[in-house]
Amino acid sequence: MLPLVFIQSVGAQETQSITNPTSVLSIFLSLLVVVAMIFALAYVARRFNVASIGNQHVKVVASMVAGAREKIMVIEVGDEQHLIGVTSHTITHLSKLDTPIPAKDNIKADGAARFKQKLIAAMAGKINPEIKKGDNRDA
């Protein structure tokens, strides 16, 4: 009966302790994975601008840096555009714009359409040399 008690006490001592090198390595790698996931999620949130997805009533039309911590921005609220000054402490309404300026999205869409037409023309010229570079026929 004595050997059975001895075997049970030896088995209880084989549990891993915090000073075991493999246990410390496992804890460190787990912590590293968690920190990497936090940074990856922060990158994705910043890259795709997750914070402003649901806000469709107020849009930033244009922005310009005026100093180290100062910006001048044109915002669109409904159908009106306003010029505001933004510092680290305050936001100041400078004026209401009488003639609205086009939004960034419209400018990007027009630029993308022009690029697409130029790319189609260039590709058509390489595939069929009889088509001239300036020809804007749809393919």
Automatic annotation (TrEMBL):
GO biological process, one term: bacterial-type flagellum organization
Alphabetically ordered keywords of this record: Bacterial flagellum, Cell membrane, Cell projection, Cilium, Flagellum, Membrane, Transmembrane, Transmembrane helix
Intracellular or extracellular location(s): Cell membrane; Bacterial flagellum basal body
Residues passing through the membrane, by range: 22-45
UniProt keyword Nuclease present: no
Family annotation (Pfam families): FliO
UniProt cross-references to InterPro entries, sorted A to Z: Flagellar_biosynth_FliO (IPR022781), FliO/MopB (IPR052205)
Any one GO CC term of the record: bacterial-type flagellum basal body
Chief place where the protein resides: membrane
NCBIfam families linked to this entry: FliO_TIGR (TIGR03500)
Stated family: Belongs to the FliO/MopB family.
Name this protein carries in UniProt: Flagellar protein
